[in-house]
Amino acid sequence: MTDLTLEERLEEAVKTLKVRGVRMTPQRYAILSYLLETRSHPTADEIYKALADRFPSMSVATVYNNLKLLKEAGLVRELTFGDQASRFDGQMHDHYHVTCIVCGRIDDFEYPPMRFIEKEAERLTGYATAEHRMEVYGICPACRKAQEEAKQMAMVTAKAAGNEH
Amino acid sequence: MTDLTLEERLEEAVKTLKVRGVRMTPQRYAILSYLLETRSHPTADEIYKALADRFPSMSVATVYNNLKLLKEAGLVRELTFGDQASRFDGQMHDHYHVTCIVCGRIDDFEYPPMRFIEKEAERLTGYATAEHRMEVYGICPACRKAQEEAKQMAMVTAKAAGNEH
DNA sequence: GTTTTATTGATAATAATTATCATTATCGGA
DNA sequence: TCCGATAATGATAATTATTATCAATAAAAC
Ligand SMILES: [Mn+2]
Ligand SMILES: [Mn+2]
Ligand SMILES: [Zn+2]
Ligand SMILES: [Zn+2]
Q: Any idea which positions bind Fe cation (chains A, B) (predicted)?
């Protein structure tokens, strides 16, 4: 329950990797710290591009390799949505996501894990359940505002056209 | 709330398509009826293979084209899981899924849609929410049984090895 | 420092899906 | 019933995300 700083979390993560016999490299460290500090749930390619100026020769394969390794070490998680590419999340505490169906933005929201639904599935299907995933879809505040303004604009235009008669 | 038969549901679906100006073809009809009757949540490729003996010359592109079209007409839905291919579901009533992390099997389970979680997301994030997705992960009855048996077998083997000393 | 071997980076391979386009078949109307 | 406009099919190329391969490089234990 202690609220660690970014530096403390990074230190922890490095320790975890060392215990696993994983060597630390500049590329690996950059990917890890990028994921620990960002809130944007980036794709592999976005991470690749974000680090391109600091590591101009880094291969995209290195990004994928490290994401897989970090995931296996329990330091990041992979979020898989419909069509596009996987997204990665360095915030490992239990939380849910809302995603904007207009701009693709993904935001966290904190809500206690709904274990009851796992129990319910267990009861109804005979599965031994272990976890669940849940995302909410909607329109983010920025896109809502944009839509409102577009609607206003359309109304004004329609009115002006009407007055021309 | 009326419980339509398979034939009635098919008839309905065909009508829906006609209204949309969509022509009926043997391939399309086969894909549609396959999805309406199965409970297995097949991939595009599985549908393709299942119909291969009846339509040996059907292109895989035709399967994809039709799945997209049926989805847009609201007659089937697409389920996207982690890595692998999309799965398709012809059961359009609200329901949730459990999937087996061992064999990949997907089963339905009926539970009233948890609208409260959409409201909660709305309150916490300012999104205008519209829907959510939720799946439970676990081990299906068949795989549980297989695991139990494997464990028994291992125990017996260990005991026999012990007796040899 | 030397040595071991995990890691990197370049690139090829794979897999799912979409795009292209010439040929074919549906279906409303003559 | 036949016709014509055009939607749909099937073959195949293209695209995209991801994984595999492997020689060169660089951690880090000694
Ligand atoms: Mn998150
Ligand atoms: Mn289902
Ligand atoms: Zn948005
Ligand atoms: Zn199973």
A: 132
